[in-house]
Amino acid sequence: MKPKSKFVTFIASCIPGLSHLYLGFADRALLFFSLFALSIAGVMGLFWVTGVHEFFVILLIALPIIWFVGLVDSLSLVDKLRREGVEGPQGNNYDFINLALNNRKVLTVVFSIVPGAGHMYLGLLNEGIQLMALFFFT
């Protein structure tokens, strides 16, 4: 099968998650698209409840960050797929253990938005609870 194009991956990254779908990583596509949609829905909900227009500044910060992280992740996946000589996660010789570890890293970063949640996801419950309590009680 023909290797995936970096140019098409870049163009598809205009909508977070679409580039991952192009590469065959549906789980990551769902993750990035969910972050994108939930950030928009959250800000719209905050605006609807409070009527404060300043919440839209959150979108000016959050959406470029989500887009940039998704772009870097998808471009690194293209390089990795080319290096390993496979067409995607459905390929016969793709190492699913590495995919699971990479997904665990991505989920840990996502959970790290809330202090301590990333530690708790990795199984470090005591450290996670301490960090979370320290953050919320401060």
Summarize this structure as a short list of keywords or feature phrases.
single chain; flat; 7 helices; about 0% strand
Give a written overview of the molecule.
By secondary structure, the protein is an all-alpha fold. The protein is 73% helix and 0% strand. The protein is built from 7 helices and no strands. The protein has helices at 6-12, 18-23, 26-50, 56-84, 96-111, 117-121, 125-137. Helix 3 packs antiparallel against helix 4. It is flat, with a radius of gyration of 18 Å. The mean pLDDT is 80.
Which helices and strands occur, and which strands form pairs?
Elements: H1 6-12, H2 18-23, H3 26-50, H4 56-84, H5 96-111, H6 117-121, H7 125-137
Helix pairs in contact: 3-4
